[in-house]
Design a protein that fits this description.
55% of the residues lie in helices and 11% in strands. The chain is α+β, with helices and mostly antiparallel strands and 566 residues long.
């Protein structure tokens, strides 16, 4: 019975596509931070006098924080929902900015991002135009609400959204570049591995030729020894026969193991693998061959010949010179070349240096470098090192130095593999601290921009002349009218029986002193202002009228100016 596949784990409402872990504790942390931002915005914008009861603000704030927490799982809903709440209550500007930035940074579809930002801006503007005259009484009309919503949407939704789009595009570009770099690095490693494998295969083929040749000589001499001992000592003849058979078995096993490398052992010309390979005569033959095709090559041999050195050293010298001259033929045709071989008791150094070519090469210098990688592998297996690169004065140089007696262990220095976990952890902490600082600076910039926009809209609203109170007009709330004037019982008593008829839908009126009292007093009149309100407390009628001025008689008669002083 096949095993039952595991059920997919349901996605958390607080995690977006590809998120793993951290979303369970991240959600309450983000909600707490969002609450702090709301309180800070409320304190900074207290001058707007938003007329909303706390029993309404608390659930709306909780809804806004919930949208902030689920913005990764429901991006469109979070942005549009916060746009509606932002149009109704300006205190959610900073969490709306965080949501807009996060959502647009994750969205990869340009059309979807554009439609989302435009829709959120339209929603915030429309809701603000409808709600602001109610939540901000006292001259804040629909035009003011639309302007306020547009400014809030631009500063807290559009600008952070555009920054998020730019950051998202940068993230995706960095991801693509990392993938391409990783692929190129992998291809380079594969090419180097292939080159090393090819060089090792070539070395194995050379060993096949050398060992096979030696074993053939042993078998030949053993056969002659067997024939010579046939009549002299039968026991020694039997031993010689056993040696010859063992040699044949060794040759058979060697062919079985390394026989597949045969093509490398059938080189011809100067590439033939013989006992003379790598000696001075062999290198002179390589140089002469290059001269024959028009390459000016000079040879500088310092020290004794290499004919008494081991075969792997001589073959390494041969391969270095041959590969270097081949590269000159391809990429620096006509350039002067100097081949220097320095042989001492302890080491063998080979230097092949070419000058810059007088004419551009027929073949562009776009080689894979596999030949040099193979040479480096061969030299390092002998315990030496190889350097190749462009010279400062122009041209190219290959320099290799290896021990005259190969080191069986290879003496290849292993690359340093120090524990970089500490540096990696420190780098991660620095990245996180930098991200937090950048986020705080961004929120500060959004807050300043939002406040400047609100101040600009407030200053653009028609203002009263300096030193004069705000004009009372129809549509004001009763509480605002009471802040600008006061209800006088004396004025109410003076208006009793002399006032015009009240509006039929008036639930109550406020009586206050009218304007230009001095002018009307000279005419024996008293000026009265009456403000009538509907059952909802909204000013629906303003009346100004005059009543006769009543002067109370004085108990002491006024002195007669025609009489003199008694």
């Amino acid at each position: 019975m096949p095993p039952t596949p595991p059920r997919p784990t349901p996605r958390s409402p607080f995690a977006g596509p590809g998120d793993q872990g951290r979303h369970l504790w991240r959600a309450p942390a983000e909600a707490t931070g969002g609450g702090i931002l709301v309180l800070a915005t409320y304190a900074a914008m207290a001058g707007l006098h938003v007329d909303l009861p706390h029993r309404f603000l608390i659930p709306v704030t909780l809804a806004a924080l919930a949208l902030l927490a689920v913005r990764r799982r429901f991006p469109v809903t979070a942005v549009l929902g916060l746009a509606v709440l932002l149009g109704a209550v300006p205190f959610y500007g900073l969490i709306a900015a965080v949501t807009s930035y996060t959502v647009t940074r994750r969205l990869a579809d340009p059309r979807r991002r554009t439609l989302l930002l435009l829709g959120a801006t339209a929603l915030a503007t429309a809701v603000s135009a409808l709600i602001t005259p109610t939540t901000l009484p006292g001259g804040y009309g629909t035009a003011y609400g639309a302007a306020l919503g547009l400014v809030l949407a631009a500063t807290t939704l559009v600008v952070p959204g555009l920054v998020g789009i730019s950051a998202g595009q940068q993230d995706r570009l960095v991801t693509v570049l990392k993938e391409r770099t990783s692929a190129a690095e992998e291809a380079r490693r594969n090419a180097e591995d292939a080159s090393r494998s090819e060089e090792r295969t070539r070395i194995a083929a050379e060993m096949h030729d050398l060992v096979g040749h030696r074993l053939s000589l042993i078998s030949l001499h053993t056969g002659g020894l067997e024939m010579a001992l046939r009549d002299q000592d039968p026991r020694l003849q039997e031993s010689a026969a056993q040696v010859r058979q063992a040699t044949r078995d060794a040759m058979y096993e060697l062919r079985q193991i390394l026989g597949v490398l045969g093509p490398f052992s059938r080189d011809t010309g100067t590439e033939a693998l013989t006992d003379a390979t790598g000696t001075r005569a062999d290198i002179e033959a390589l140089v002469a061959e290059s001269r024959g095709v028009g390459i000016p090559v000079g040879l500088d041999w310092q020290g004794p010949d290499l004919d008494r050195r081991e075969a792997q050293v001589r073959r390494a010298v041969h391969r270095i010179v041959r590969e270097s001259l081949t590269n000159v033929h391809k990429y620096a045709t006509g350039a002067a070349v100097t081949v220097t071989v320095t042989h001492t008791d302890g080491e063998v150094a080979v230097r092949v240096r070419n000058e810059p070519p007088e004419l551009p090469a027929a073949e562009p210098a776009s080689g894979t470098g596999r030949g040099l990688t193979g040479l480096r592998e061969r030299v390092e297996l002998l315990g030496g090192r190889l350097d190749a690169g462009v010279r400062a004065e122009g041209g190219f140089q290959v320099y290799a130095v290896m021990p005259a007696v190969p080191d069986p262990a290879g003496r290849r220095s292993a690359p340093a593999t120090g524990d970089g976990s500490g540096a990696t952890a420190l780098s991660g902490i620095q990245d996180r601290v930098g991200t937090v600082i950048t986020a705080l600076l961004g929120l500060a910039g959004v807050a300043v921009t939002m406040m400047l926009g609100v101040i600009l809209v407030e200053q653009a609203r028609p203002q009263q002349e300096y030193g004069k109170p705000e004009a009372i007009h129809v549509g004001m709330s009763k509480s605002r009218v009471e802040q600008l004037t006061y209800d006088s019982d004396v004025v109410r008593a003076a208006a009793a029986g002399r006032e015009p008829a009240r509006p039929t839908d008036a639930a109550g009126c406020l009586y206050s002193f009218g304007d230009d009292q001095e002018r009307y007093r000279t005419q024996g009149l008293f000026r009265i202002a009456r403000y009538c309100f509907d059952p909802h407390g909204t000013l629906i009628k303003i009346d100004e009228f005059s009543v006769p001025l009543v002067v109370e008689p004085s108990a002491t008669p006024a002195p007669d100016p025609t009489r003199g002083t008694p």
